[in-house]
Amino acid sequence: MDILPILSTLKRHKTAAGLIVLQIALTCAIVCNALFLIIQRLERVNADNGFDEDALVTLSLSSMTRVENPEPQTQADLAALRQLPGVAVVTLTNQYPYGRSSNNSGVRLTPDRDAPSRVVAGHYLTSPGFIRAMGLKLVAGRDFTPDEYVANSSLDNNPDPRVPAVIVNKQMADRLWPGESPLGKPIYGAYGSEPQRVVGVVQDLASPNPGSGSENDRHTMMFPVQPSFRSGAYLIRVAPGADRDAVLKAAADKLLANSPGLRRVIRDQDTLAKLRADYYRQDRSMIQLLAGVCVGLLVVTAFGIVGLASFWVQQRTRMIGTRRALGATRGQILRYFQTENLLLSTAGIGLGMIGAYGISLLLMSHYELPRLPFAYLPVGALALWALGQIAVLAPARRAAALPPVVALRGG
Q: Using the 8-state DSSP alphabet, how is residue 261 labeled?
């Protein structure tokens, strides 16, 4: 179809055409960036963080009376919890994913204290059974042996503590020793002057704050340092088929009854599944907000196109009648309005792509977000082209259905 008559007509309606172009451009710029942010948030919310969170519950206690040596009470608690029905594995840790604590340490590959840290990694203190409780997969090496575990309380007043071993996640191993086996390699900086040697590598171990984007989110390590009930949290893996909530309640009751003469209160108790839901609540709210913005903008743009096309059909009734009288078919009238919309949409999309890139640079500079990938621009363009063609279809069909005589009289 010859577009010169269409361009000539649009020149006579510059204001209306310019407004619809700007509306499409604004929608394109915002929707492209919003879709990118939505996809990012969805990837974060749906990420597999490498452990069996659906089978885990956790609880921690505070003591209302002073305890000089908490280790016997801690071991009694572990023994009591293992006897509960529905409990598969019990362990103790200083922190867990989606929790309130975030303990990290910088590590070096040399004993030089002045050397900069090579990585900052999530620092897990663990008691026996941690790998089984979390459902982690060892991809190299082994778990800690019983003789490697030390009590965390014994390290508090030790100026040069000795911790012999460490297990790291695969990302940390690949970062520190790319292309090499990490087994037996030393790291420094976490405890004392002596190194901790890598005895195992797990496929993945989530940080306490997964999805944060920081370096210690990618790199994590475990040490055979056993917390006490005062400095750690009990982590329970529920047996298949057992009721998590029932096991959690029974565990809380057991711990409170397991310390005669020692007044304790439950500080926190929850399932890891609920903690995850709470942890990602803001992300889900952001997804809903951005999706609502996208839908709202697309609806407003669609109504704008429909309104403008309907107005132009009324204004061009005589032109439509003349073209029909000269032999134009309904299909040609329909294509005329669709082509006109396509030209306006293309102009708006072109401006919108520039705007989308500008918004992306603004977000990068103020919020440290990654740059908008190029692939989102054609996706946004296709969506707006399709939206424009669908929106203009009804007014264009009404124009094409006008009989020539009626159209000429209407003019």
A: T
The answer on pLDDT for 5 being more than 70 is no
- Measured distance CA(344)–CA(385) in Å, rounded: 10
- To the nearest 10°, the Cα dihedral for 188, 192, 195, 201? -70
pLDDT in tens, 76-92: 999 999 999 999 999 99
Query: Which residues, listed in sequence order, are joined to residue 63 by a DSSP beta bridge?
Result: 264
Q: What is the DSSP letter of 292?
A: H
| Residue 265 near residue 64, CB atoms below 8 Å | yes
Q: Cα–Cα distances in Å, from 38 out to 31, 137, 284, 288, 361? A: 10, 31, 9, 9, 17
pTM above 0.85, yes or no: no
Give residue-wise pLDDT tens across range 369-407: 788 888 888 888 898 899 888 888 888 787 777 666 555
| Closest to 26 in 3D by CA, of 349, 342, 390, 387 | 349
pLDDT at 140 exceeding the cut of 70: yes
Tokens 């989102």, residue? 376
CB 49 within 8 A of CB 212: no
Residue 247 identity (one-letter amino acid): V
Query: Are 353 and 317 contacting, i.e. CB atoms less than 8 angstroms apart?
Result: no
Task: Scan for tokens 């108790």, then name that residue.
Answer: 269
Domain boundaries, the chain: 4-46+281-410, 65-262
* DSSP-derived 3-state class of residue 220: strand
What is the tens place of the pLDDT at every residue in 217-252? 789 999 999 999 888 999 999 999 999 999 999 999
Residue 46, classed as helix, strand or coil, is coil
CA pair distance 275, 203, nearest whole angstrom: 23
Distances (CA, A) of 194 to 111, 163, 360: 8, 8, 47
Query: Which of 119, 139, 134, 173 is closest to 49 using CA atoms?
Result: 134
**Residue from 283, 302, 301 nearest 291 by CA:** 283
Neighbours of 237 (CB within 10 A): 23
